[in-house]
Amino acid sequence: MMPSPHDHSWNGKVVFITGAGTGIGQATALAFAQRGAKLALAGSSEAPLHDTAQRIATLGGTETLCLPCNVTNEDDLARTLSLIEKEWGRLDAAFNNAGIGQGGTPAASISTEEWKRVVDIDLTGTFLSMKYEIPLMLKSGGGAIVNSASTAGLVGFRTAAAYTAAKFGVVGLTKAAAMDYAREAIRINAICPGPIETPMIEKFLGGAEGLRRTKEAQPIGRLGQREEIAEMVVSMCNPATAYLTGSAIAIDGGQTSGVMG
Ligand SMILES: NC(=O)c1ccc[n+]([C@@H]2O[C@H](COP(=O)([O-])OP(=O)(O)OC[C@H]3O[C@@H](n4cnc5c(N)ncnc54)[C@H](O)[C@@H]3O)[C@@H](O)[C@H]2O)c1
């Protein structure tokens, strides 16, 4: 759903998104930009960030910063958040969305190296992002953080133990940190998408046949679209949802709601 051309609800506000060059992160950057936000776009490689910035410019969006940043590198995050402070002096919302998938390997066969890579990017990267976002939000008078978990942060998925453990970790981190800052006007929630049509899911489902089977298995009979996640993230950050904190919200076409039969 496109916002009304008169929706300027994020005018003058600053939003930081990791993994902003592709998929769900890019769609969310566009959704905030359409409402007037300034966007700080971070990601491990630079070219996709410029693609997102170009799309924002085409939409007539406001200012953007492209900030190459590896979320597993604490120095990168410290530098990135201090650049945002220097440029715009505040941070109103952050979407910690950078992540990698893992699948197709039973738990005991996952290499220790793969385990550490997934936990490092998906869980530690989310922790390090918050570690540098929260102090700037405190200086800004508060803000809203959404962490990217997954339905794999709510239920177990076969052959994806590293990803499932990391995303359960993101949900736990979200809930504990929400308690720490609930009285300081910082809201922290996790979004738990079901399968969304992005390059990540296509890769892990193993091509067209895997995609068809996954669609068939969904209660709603289709995959989600990245724009549907983007709209939910914006609404979780809106002041209108100010009572929402410490929640892990499934947006999954019914995937985790029951067993079809
Ligand atoms: N697509 C799905 O079905 C789905 C479902 C549930 C959750 N998610 C989660 O949504 C998020 C976005 O996934 P997507 O589907 O848009 O995939 P994607 O691969 O398009 O996006 C991931 C982004 O993260 C960036 N990234 C990866 N490692 C990084 C690092 N170390 N530092 C900085 N950036 C890094 C990538 O460059 C990429 O832009 C991920 O956290 C993923 O786990 C996706």
From TrEMBL:
Q: What is this protein called?
A: Short-chain dehydrogenase
Name the protein family: Belongs to the short-chain dehydrogenases/reductases (SDR) family.
Asked if the record carries the keyword Oxidoreductase, the reply is yes
Signal peptide boundaries: none
Using the record's annotation, list all stretches that form the Ketoreductase domain: 13-194
Keywords (A to Z) from UniProt: NAD, Oxidoreductase
Pfam families (UniProt xref): adh_short_C2 (PF13561)
Naturally occurring in which organism (per UniProt): Saccharibacter floricola DSM 15669
Family matches, as CDD domains = SDR_c
